[in-house]
């Protein structure tokens, strides 16, 4: 049975969509069958990070309402063959989606894919709960700023109240000089959030350039943030990979 992982954070803009796209691609590049689901209902933008914005993409409501099967709907990535994608519906609110049908969708995803990665919307409201409640584990994303850490701490509590115990943390957009100036270190962030550290991702303009150019990050570069996400994918697979030093890129 495959594993369903939700990517969450309290705050918007911390890098959930970037992480969901990059981790899905990195796992698929290691030949695992991966389904990436954009669950940011109404504000979807995962298609941009995966370089699929020009494509006609089925959304996960097409599957849960029975219009197509998961196998028919899951869109195979043209340059990463074991990566499949389901978009978010743009004209539906999360409250209109039957959670039981979401559970059925994820159960069949577990049978067909090694990993299902769900990109959650910001906040801890109904969209977040729909995305998270049937996941097996969660990865929370924070930047180093204090409001983001506090929001993700709250998100960790919400995830636990949904019954998710396996929660790990990625600190994204790290700028070593900024950490030094704020007298902060990664241990402080891990302590605040209360989840085990899965990885560190540097601030890297390749993330923005790759999305703007419609190229998945791991196809755009093998350095910086792309290398960090590949290491994180390895760690998710149980490989013992050191965190790696975060060197200033900008
Ligand atoms: P969220 O899904 O949490 O709202 P996004 O993944 O959409 O966040 O990221 C928000 C913005 O930050 C995007 O413009 C993205 O390109 C940028 N970004 C995310 N991670 C990084 C990074 N490590 N370095 C530079 N820019 C980043
Ligand atoms: Mg997003």
Task: Please name the defining characteristics of this protein.
single chain, 250 residues, alpha/beta, Rossmann fold, 18% strand, binds adenosine-5'-diphosphate, binds magnesium ion
Topology (elements, then pairings):
Elements: E1 3-8, H1 16-29, E2 34-38, H2 46-49, H3 60-64, H4 70-73, E3 75-76, E4 83-86, H5 99-112, E5 115-119, H6 126-132, E6 137-142, H7 146-161, E7 166-174, H8 176-181, H9 186-193, E8 196-202, H10 205-212, H11 217-220, H12 224-236
Parallel strand pairs: 1-5, 1-6, 2-4, 2-5, 6-7, 7-8
Antiparallel strand pairs: 3-4
Bound molecules: adenosine-5'-diphosphate and magnesium ion.
Adenosine-5'-diphosphate binds next to helix 1, strand 7 and helix 10.
CATH architecture: 3-Layer(aba) Sandwich
Amino- and carboxy-terminal Cα gap: 41 Å
The named CATH superfamily: P-loop containing nucleotide triphosphate hydrolases
Number of strands: 8
Structural class: alpha/beta
Order of helices and strands: EHEHHHEEHEHEHEHHEHHH
Number of separate structural domains:
1
- Number of discrete helical segments: 12
Shape: globular
CATH class division: Alpha Beta
Helix content: 40-55%
Bound molecules: adenosine-5'-diphosphate, magnesium ion
Beta strand %:
15-25%
Largest sheet: 8 strands, mixed
Write down the overall mean pLDDT: 91
Strand order of the largest sheet: 3-4-2-5-1-6-7-8
CATH topology: Rossmann fold
Computed CA radius of gyration, to the nearest angstrom: 17 Å
């Amino acid at each position: 049975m495959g594993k369903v992982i939700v990517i969450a954070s309290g705050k918007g803009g911390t890098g959930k969509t970037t992480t969901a796209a990059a981790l899905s691609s990195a796992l698929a590049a290691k030949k695992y069958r991966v389904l990436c689901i954009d669950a940011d209902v109404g504000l979807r933008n995962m298609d941009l990070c995966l370089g699929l914005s020009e494509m006609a993409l089925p959304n996960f409501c097409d599957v849960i309402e029975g219009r197509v099967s998961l196998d028919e709907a899951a869109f195979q990535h043209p340059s990463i063959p074991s990566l499949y994608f389901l978009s978010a519906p743009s004209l539906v609110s999360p409250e209109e989606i039957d959670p039981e049908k979401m559970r059925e969708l994820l159960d069949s995803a577990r049978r067909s894919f090694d990993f299902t990665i769900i990109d959650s919307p910001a906040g801890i409201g109904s969209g977040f709960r729909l995305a998270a409640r049937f996941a097996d584990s969660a990865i929370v994303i924070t930047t180093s700023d204090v409001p983001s850490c506090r929001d993700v701490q709250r998100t960790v509590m919400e995830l636990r109240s949904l019954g998710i115990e396996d929660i790990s943390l990625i600190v994204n957009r790290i700028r070593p000089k900024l950490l030094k100036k704020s007298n902060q270190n990664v241990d402080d962030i891990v302590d605040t959030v209360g989840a085990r550290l899965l990885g560190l991702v540097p601030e890297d303009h390749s993330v923005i350039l790759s999305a703007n150019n419609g190229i998945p990050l791991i196809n755009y570069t093998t350095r910086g943030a792309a290398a960090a996400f590949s290491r994180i994918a390895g760690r998710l697979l149980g490989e013992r990979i050191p965190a790696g030093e975060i060197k200033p890129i900008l």
